[in-house]
Design brief:
alpha/beta, TIM Barrel, 5-stranded parallel β-sheet, globular, 7-stranded mixed β-sheet, 22% strand, Urease, subunit C, domain 1
């Protein structure tokens, strides 16, 4: 067994609101996992040594809400096909890793591109974060994900459902393909052109079926949910996470805390639309986001301060919101009311726990994979430090950037 010891760093393990000064940690080069850590002089004689020059080390970011096959630009001219989506995904994944993202949960991808890439990776490796795939989402006719794709617009992004039985079938099809997460469209959304954010789309009974069927097969369920009633139905149904949560009520915040339901706010996605979307997006979508953005931050802030389980997701792939900019969400979470530690934990153990991979990811503890970032400044002092462009990125103990 060969090992590498990393010395002379300030280590944010991720489990407590503190940094270990003059720290060291050992990585097993064969497994890519941490074996030991401490402060002061490393007592072990290890052949390979890396001096981190008193910089700050933290876990790689886990992004719990991504759309890896999407193109966040608005000037694209080509049709959305499996070929273009796969090209986008491979490019986005590599850039995402460079931006410090080492694990993602996919939340809806046309053509099941994320599922296929996750399976292909075993034989055909490529650079990028680890992937928890979802494939096609589940939507009602005219709902938030009812959108045609393909060379001739002859395929749909989503499973279009009209009944509880339709939902059961859709979940089972995704299970057969190899999805690990099910994405439900509980409400309307900002970018869809035919609905409002408070349109309640999937019924309570339909979402209960999705959760029941998915959980029986060790899959998680996330719900795009912006309007109050749709959020309420999703929480009652027992989803693992509420995505966005524009109008999450006090009642549902308390129920989420009781059940352990996570909130993945994706504040960056809304912020980018408001700041940069005028004249580039449809006026319908731009005005919707401008109308709701204040309430979005207020309700999310209330949920954070109330102690709801918090994950970090960005809706990467939406307008002006590439995966490599995931660290921006840390700043937005703090703006909404999170402490620096709460935001960083959301991007580490929070998202890892939601994805059920916290036994191996999400913090820099012995026994977990050595996915870490090396930064010039202390992220616990200022979370914007994680946006450093030239940061070092390690995955399973190997430097990637």
């Amino acid at each position: 067994m060969t090992e590498t010891v990393f010395v002379n760093c300030n280590l944010f393990v991720g489990t407590e609101d503190k940094v270990l000064k003059n720290a060291w940690f050992v990585v097993d080069n064969e497994t890519g996992k941490l074996t030991e850590q401490g402060t002061g002089e490393c007592p072990r004689r290890v052949e390979n040594k890396v001096d981190l020059k008193n910089q700050y080390v933290m876990s790689g970011l886990l992004n719990s809400h991504t759309h890896i096959a999407a193109d966040p630009r608005t000037d694209k001219w080509y049709p959305e096909t499996e070929t273009s989506g796969t090209y986008n995904a491979l490019k986005n994944l590599e850039k995402g890793l460079q931006g410090g993202v080492t694990y993602i949960r996919s939340c809806g991808v046309a053509f099941d591109i994320d599922v296929k890439l996750a399976q292909m990776r075993k034989e055909l490796p490529f650079d990028g974060p680890q992937i928890m795939p979802a494939g096609m989402p589940i939507s009602i006719p005219g709902g938030h994900a009812d959108s045609l794709v393909g060379e001739n617009n002859d395929q749909n992004v989503a499973h279009i459902v009209n009944s509880v039985d339709d939902v059961r079938k859709a979940v089972r099809l995704q299970f057969k393909k190899g999805a690990k997460n099910i994405k439900l469209m509980a409400t309307g959304g900002v970018m869809s052109q035919g609905d409002q954010v408070d349109d309640t789309e999937l019924s309570l009974e339909e979402m209960k079926m999705a959760v029941q069927e998915a959980h029986l097969k060790h899959m998680t369920v996330c719900a795009h949910a912006q309007g109050e009633l749709g959020i309420h139905y999703a929480v009652l149904a027992g989803v693992d996470s509420i995505e966005h949560g524009f109008y999450v009520s006090d009642e549902d915040i308390e129920l989420m805390k009781k059940q352990g339901t996570f909130l993945s706010p994706t504040l960056t996605a809304g912020n980018q639309i408001v700041e940069h979307g005028k004249g580039k997006l449809s006026d319908f979508s731009y005005q919707k986001m401008c109308t709701h953005v204040k309430a979005f931050y207020e309700h999310v802030g209330k949920a954070i301060r109330s102690g709801v389980n918090l994950a970090l997701g960005t809706d990467a792939g939406t307008f002006n919101n590439p995966l490599e900019d995931t660290a921006k969400e840390l700043v937005e979470l703090v703006k909404a009311g999170a402490t620096n530690y709460q935001a960083l934990r959301a991007g580490g153990l929070g998202s890892a726990t939601l994805m059920k991979v916290d036994d191996e990811y999400g913090s820099l503890e012995p026994g977990k994979y050595a996915d870490f970032l090396v930064l010039k400044n202390n992220p616990l002092t200022d979370v914007a430090a994680v946006q450093q462009k030239d940061k070092q990125v390690y995955q399973h103990g190997v430097r990637k950037f």
